[in-house]
Please model this.
Amino acid sequence: MSAVIKDPAQQDHKTLVSLRNLNKHYGDFAAVDNISLDIQNGEFLTFLGSSGSGKSTTLSMLAGFETPSSGEILVNGQSLVNVPSHKRDIGMVFQRYSLFPHLSVRDNIAFPLAIRKLPKAERERQVDAMLKLVQLNEFAHRRPSQLSGGQQQRVAIARALVYEPRILLMDEPLGALDKKLREDLQDELRQLHRRLGITIVYVTHDQEEAMRLSQRIAIFSHGKIVGLGTGFDLYQNPPNAFVASFLGNSNFLKLKAKGNAVGLFEAQPLSIRLTSGLQVDQDLLLMVRPEKAQALSIDQAIRDPAAAGWNEVPATVVEVLFLGESQTCSVVTQGGTAMTVKALSAAGMPLKTGDPVRVRWAAADACVYTQWTESDLNKAAGAH
Ligand code: ADP
Ligand code: MG
Model:
């Protein structure tokens, strides 16, 4: 590969790919439902969502394997919809390695160059560069069947990159590998992206993988993008209850609004983040991450009263779990709302089942939602 080293600081962060009102219908079923998205030049963007949410269909339209029912795909402002897939300057890696079993590693990687009729010397040079990039020099003469799953996937990545596409699409490329290998390859992919400066659009249903790899994450549900941003922002400030419940763990409390900064929870007034335009007695949903909440024994709570801006509700311990680095405590409030509190084990949670406790959190740490459905609150509901 020529001039593979690019300085990420010099990348122009302008839009490279635009999806505009993209739809894919199968009969009257919308697999992709009016998606609009701008992908920046050089970014690592991940489509994250449960099975059947439309990630692969969207990626396939970008690759040119599927034709949109309606909508536009633009690259640098030019429509791609009528450009055949092999002319799109897009590389693709799938979950199944789809290597040619009868060809050596070297010939597998050289294949896209051979069909593009590159001169032999040039081909050799580029294949050598790719073998080095994915650290498979020593395996150049092996057949795919003589490689581990992780090595085969590195061959597939090298083969997708060898003709220097501007965009690399990856559909659950590490899905078939075990956890340790997956994490190693995630690190390699992140470094590869940094070194090459190409644009990567990645599909996974694994939120930890999405967090590890991506600069931005698009969360898919029922053919729509329901959240878009950095992993940090989506986790800290989920745009809606579905994203809150899908990403990480969350406590949901049902309140009635009593003002723009006050809610009533199980007949107890609570401070909430200032949310303008609330109507008195309007239903609200409060979301608190388990690690943002605390459970204190009654003695502790009396010794150390809650600070201003914090809420405190009485509850009873259901279960305490030791998880190594962290500890969780499940409680139930007097009105029957289940909550979970998480703390670092080192901090200690000297509580046991049946103990009366006070659960606390800072109003600023809880998100307020005015619209949601019951299925949003159920992590499994998104899956088919
Ligand atoms: P994901 O990659 O997020 O798991 P897909 O994009 O593969 O989801 O599929 C989205 C939805 O579209 C699923 O419900 C799937 O069953 C449906 N679908 C995909 N391809 C076809 C097809 N060729 N015919 C009918 N339905 C399809
Ligand atoms: Mg898929």
